[in-house]
Amino acid sequence: MLGAKAARLRKGSWIFSRRLAVDVDGLERLGIPINDHDKLPDVVFHHAKRNWLFLIEAVTSHGPVSPSRLVDLEEMLAACPAGPVFVSAFPDFTEFRKHIRQIAWDTEVWLCDAPDHMIHFNGDRFLGPRQ
């Protein structure tokens, strides 16, 4: 039996596994290293028209975008021309309250039980790239 990492298949520009789908060519075009998938957030979405890169952490998998995680992500994105938008996604307000002290400033918070709203942690703008 193959382990999850060994079972990944590469088809064209995508890597597939039980829990991971990666557009390898897309990440390379954006200057994002793909050698360590463990450093990627749960969801990476490029809004091409605005050239924003949404980096979304599902809190239930690895925790929120903390100050140390923010530094790691910024280092990973050093060669990326897109403006990063860091988002911590929570299932509900109760879970958000458990992690509130760990959330980095100048990031966004999204709650599944209030999907039409975002919480912005300080900064000079609402929902936009951190620069």
Q: Which sequence of SSEs, written as H and E, runs from N to C?
A: EEEHEEHHEHEE
Rg over C-alpha atoms, rounded to the nearest angstrom: 15 Å
Structural class: alpha/beta
Q: How many helical elements?
A: 4
Mean pLDDT: 81
CATH architecture identity of the largest domain: 3-Layer(aba) Sandwich
The major β-sheet equals: 5 strands, mixed
Which spans of ≥5 residues are poorly predicted at pLDDT below 50? 1-14
Oligomeric assembly: single chain
End-to-end C-alpha gap = 45 Å
Number of domains: 2
CATH topology of the largest domain: Trna Endonuclease, Chain: A, domain 1
DSSP strand (E) fraction? 25-35%
By CATH, the superfamily of the largest domain comes out as BsuBI/PstI restriction endonuclease, C-terminal domain
What's the β-strand tally?
8
Helix content: 10-25%
Rough outline:
globular
- Record the strand order, biggest sheet: 4-5-6-7-8
**Which CATH class of the largest domain applies here?**
Alpha Beta
